[in-house]
Specification:
alpha/beta; three-stranded mixed sheet; binds 2'deoxy-thymidine-5'-diphospho-alpha-D-glucose; 13 helices; Rossmann fold; binds nicotinamide-adenine-dinucleotide; seven-stranded parallel sheet
Length: about 350
């Protein structure tokens, strides 16, 4: 048995593949374009492991995808490949349209042809699992109920609009062609291997370098935070027992304003890596807001809990401590991803008045 995982050199994808092969001997074909966010170092523990077949390539490459499906005969496709950073989508939406929309469309087309050609048993067992985000639902008022699977889509950023478009295509491939698809919409992940452009790893990296900790706007934007291995366990649960055609929201019941997140991290860093010059909170710097910044996301995860018995294993307190410790123990990982391209991105996104 084989899984085709896309985006498995990125943050969630690498955590998913490492956990998958830590728990089962089922082979993983891992297709990744190795963009700035894809990092072969994330998979170094799998070097020489015959259960892991890494393929450097693009989900928008039709011949490549068709060939991989024909050659490896996977029982499922787990699509994690995406452009994932909201700020980058604001500066340059083109890659988001190409990968998140056209890439997903290409995967669906190839998977449909492959699925139709399978024998009856393989055909009925096949799944196409599409990993999406809570951002497709838009922004909540302070006292609105959390997003359910029935909440209308109202994406606000080029990133979330591209993910929403992909979700609609996935839904249509089930409705029109009967393809056995599953969609997951998850809240903000954090944990080991996250590229330091996202809030939590950026704050850790900057704090360790004694640099300002940039907080957008008034710091009161609210997100729901989930430890990455809880997202991975949810994906496994949906893949194993999710009902084809269904959508599952995944979240940690852990809404927090950004400034509280940053304060918690500063206090943890004070404990684990005290700063001679003073408390880490002194590094917090309120900066120009993100254009179109969604005010609040919150996830109602009762469907996946009720139907699939999934629950997060970590609280924010346990997950954030593990995360900060991981970054403290892996300074060379952080240094290696902070290339010239990373520095240019930081200059572009955080330069005065941008
Ligand atoms: P990431 O940016 O860390 O990794 C994305 C991976 O996809 C990288 O390895 C990159 O090289 C690869 N990739 C990009 N374009 C590709 C292409 N055209 N073909 C093949 N590979 C390509 O992203 P992540 O945070 O790990 O997110 C993974 C998925 O989960 C995305 O679909 C994202 O929308 C979704 N998601 C992320 C979060 C989060 O908080 N990070 C929350 C909910 C959902
Ligand atoms: O909700 C799920 C989404 O979470 C995923 O679909 C995205 O792929 C993922 O990037 C994430 O999106 P966010 O925009 O919420 O994550 P980010 O870490 O970029 O920002 C989290 C919050 O922190 C957000 O309100 C913006 C704010 N922020 C972010 C950065 C990078 C800051 O205040 N300062 C910063 O420097």
């Amino acid at each position: 048995m084989t899984l085709l995982v896309t985006g498995g050199a990125g943050f969630i994808g690498a955590n998913f593949v490492l956990e998958w092969l830590g728990r089962s001997d089922e082979r993983v074909v891992n297709l990744d374009a190795l963009t700035y966010a894809g990092n072969p170092e994330n998979l170094v523990a799998l070097e020489g492991d015959e259960r892991h077949i890494f393929v450097h390539g693009n989900i928008a490459d039709r011949a490549l995808i068709a060939g991989l499906l024909a050659e490896h005969q996977p029982r499922a496709v787990v699509n994690l490949a995406a452009e994932s950073h909201v700020d980058r989508s604001i500066h340059g939406p083109g890659d988001f349209v190409r990968t998140n929309i056209q890439g997903t469309y290409n995967l669906l087309e190839c998977a449909l042809e492959y699925w139709r050609g399978l024998d009856a048993a393989a055909n009925s067992g096949f799944r196409f699992l599409h990993v999406s985000t809570d951002e497709v639902y838009g922004s909540l008022e302070p006292d609105s109920p959390p997003f359910t699977e029935a909440t209308a889509y109202q994406p606000n950023s080029p990133y979330s609009a591209s993910k929403a478009a992909a979700d609609h295509l996935v839904r249509a491939w089930h409705h029109t062609y009967g393809m056995p698809v599953l969609t997951t919409n998850c809240s903000n992940n954090y944990g080991p291997l996250q590229f330091p452009e996202k809030l939590i790893p950026l704050v850790i990296a900057n704090a360790l370098a004694g640099e300002p900790l940039p907080v957008y706007g008034d710091g009161m934007n609210v997100r729901d935070w989930l430890y990455v291995s809880d997202h991975c366990s949810a994906i496994r649960a949906v893949l194993a027992n999710g009902r084809p055609g269904e959508v599952y929201n995944i979240g940690g019941w852990n809404e927090m304003p950004n400034i509280d997140i940053v304060n918690v991290m500063c206090d943890l860093l004070d404990e684990l890596r005290p700063r001679a010059e003073g408390p880490h909170r002194e590094l917090i710097s309120f900066v120009k807001d993100r254009p179109g910044h969604d005010r609040r996301y919150a996830i109602d995860a009762r469907k996946i809990e009720r139907e699939l018995g999934w629950r997060p294993a970590e609280t924010f307190q346990t997950g954030i401590r593990k995360t900060v410790q991981w970054y403290l123990e892996h300074p060379s990982w952080v240094a290696n991803v902070q290339s010239g391209a990373y520095r240019r991105w930081v200059d572009l996104n955080y330069r005065q008045g941008s």
